[in-house]
Specification:
The protein has about 350 residues and is an alpha/beta fold. The chain has helices at about 10-15, 35-45, 70-80, 105-115, 130-145, 160-165, 165-170, 185-190, 210-225, 240-250, 265-275, 275-290, 305-320, 330-335; strands at about 25-30, 55-60, 90-95, 120-125, 155-160, 175-180, 225-230, 255-260, 300, 305. The protein has 2 domains: about 15-275, Alpha-Beta Barrel (TIM Barrel), CATH 3.20.20; about 275-335, no CATH class. Helix 4 (about 105-115) crosses helix 5 and helix 12 packs across helix 13 (about 305-320). It is globular.
Amino acid sequence: MSTLSLIHPRQALFGAEASRPALPVCDHYAGVEARMRKSLALQEEMGISSGHALFDVTLDLEDGAPVGGEDDHVQLVAELVNSEANAYDRVGARVHSPSHPHFAEDIDTLVKLSGHRLAYLMLPKVADADEARRALGTIREARTRHGLNRPIPVHVLIETLTAVQDVNAIARLAGIESLSFGLMDFVSEHRGAIPASAMSAQGQFTHPLVLRAKLEISAAAHAARITPSHCVVTEFKNHRALADAARKASHDLGYTRMWSIHPDQIPVIIEAFAPVTAEVDDAIEILMAAQAAHWAPTSHRGNLHDRASYRHYWAVLERAWLTGQPIPEEVEAAFFSA
């Protein structure tokens, strides 16, 4: 086999976008110290068999910090990011909103103490593209001030009406890696015009205004080549409702990532976002044949495939790897070895 045939799918199929990282399908939030430490331990434990994190952990300053204890809490978060408990370097932090008095201090402290290991920063309650742009500037200034050369990916939580209106402009800002939907704040911003049932696992997929917001966020993220992340399901003990919501988010609305607010939700979300075995088998056969053909068109079970379908099947295979699905050793070595 020639050297050309060994070009990795990312380079062969995506060109300049090849370096865009694929994020784990689950983003787990924890703000209380005991829960943060347990979440990090669970992340390490669940990743042992696959050798990589099956979910991200977001340490929460916005909802986790007690009033008056913000300084101590941000120090704790920085300590945990830097610790051995961060086994896969897939730990981020949600800071206070850009309009909050502690926002700039959160950014400065995290960049100074743990910027070299932070997987991302989550910005909540961004009002519009202008505020998002200013927040990104605050992060850049902190990096310059503390001599941090590596960029820190930024995730933005879209939960205000004006942010939804501005979502395409926000998604295109340089440095943003993911958009998330903030269901609870979005509904409450309507001041009773949307019923509380729209915040439920079922109602959030049927109310027209909520559904429209979800679709606009997903479409904007895909257009900007970043990751759309679906909102929480608060009925954390109802695994059936959670699994149904995760499947709808993934299969119907195009989300490739979802929030977890309880450890029991993590495996349910991962399973719902994972491709089925038949899809993975097809993806392996099609991609291995494509690589052998130097990424020229091929035939598989009587169907023609070219780079358009190769890109789809690469996404399937990459999702299988991200969710810890069994992949033959030779395929993992060819496509996912460091």
